[in-house]
Amino acid sequence: MTEQEENTKKTLFVPKVFSNMNSSKNSESSVSSYSRTVFLVLIHCVCIIFTIFITLQSRPGSSLFSWHPFLMTLAFSLFMSEAILIFSPYGSPIKTFTYRTKRQFHWILQVLCVSCALLGVVTIYYNKHLNGKPHLTSWHGVLGAGTVWVTILQSLAALPLLYHSLAKGWSLAKLKQYHSATGTLTYLLGSISLVLGLSSAWFTASVNGSTWYLIALCPVLCAFYMITQIKAGYSSKKRL
C-alpha cells in the first residue's frame, strides 16, 4: 500500500470514529434527559399524592382544626413546589412557554402559597384560642410560624424582580441570586415543618409504622429535588 493510499484511509477512518463518538454522546444525552423527565414527573406525582393523602386525613370542614393541615399542605407541598417546578427544563407543564409567562405563573402560585399559609396560621391560632390552649409549644409550631414569616418576607423581597425601580443600585443578576438562595431556604423550612407536622399527635393517632415513613419521605424527596434544581439552574447561569 502506498503512502498516499494510507493517508486516504486514515482520512476516511477518522471522521467515522468521530461520528461514532458523537452518536454515543447523543445517545447518552437522550437517555439522561429522558431519565430526568421521568424523575420530574415522579416528583409532580409525589407532591399531588401527598397533598391528597393529607386532605383525606384532615377532612377539611369537619372541624376548625381540619383546615390547618389542609391549607399548610396545599401551600408548601403543592403551590410552592409547582412554583419552582415551572422553571424546570425537563418536565415543566408549561416548558414551551416564554420565560415571562413562566414568571407570571410562578408569582400566581406563590401568592396562593402565601394566602393558604396565612389562613392556616389564622385557623390554628383561633382554634387554640377557642380551646384555651397555649401557642407555640412544639417545634412544629415554632418552626411553622417562622416559616410562614420567612415565606412572606421572601415574597415581598422578590418584588424588585418585577419592579426593578424598587431596587436602585442592585443588579438584576444579584437579585435573582438572592431570590434563589432565600427560596431554597424557605422551601427547606417548609418541608421540615411538614415532616414535624406528621409527628404530631393528630397524625400519628391514625398513621404509623411503615406508612408513616413512606408519607414522611414525600416532602424529604421533594425538598432534595427542589434544592438540586435551584442549585443546578444557578450554576448553569453562572457558567454562561
UniProtKB/TrEMBL annotation:
Descriptive protein name: ascorbate ferrireductase (transmembrane)
Location within or outside the cell: Membrane
Annotated EC: 7.2.1.3
Pfam families xref list: Cytochrom_B561
Domain Cytochrome b561 as annotated: residue spans: 31-237
Keyword Coiled coil: no
Major place of residence: membrane
Transmembrane parts of this sequence: 37-56, 68-87, 107-126, 138-163, 184-205, 211-230
An example molecular function term from Gene Ontology annotations: transmembrane ascorbate ferrireductase activity
UniProt cross-references to Gene3D superfamilies, sorted A to Z: 1.20.120.1770
Alphabetical UniProt keywords: Electron transport, Heme, Iron, Membrane, Metal-binding, Transmembrane, Transmembrane helix, Transport
Top-rank lineage group of the source organism: Eukaryota
GO cellular component entries: endoplasmic reticulum; membrane
Cofactor(s) needed: heme b
Its membrane topology: Multi-pass membrane protein
Root EC class: translocase
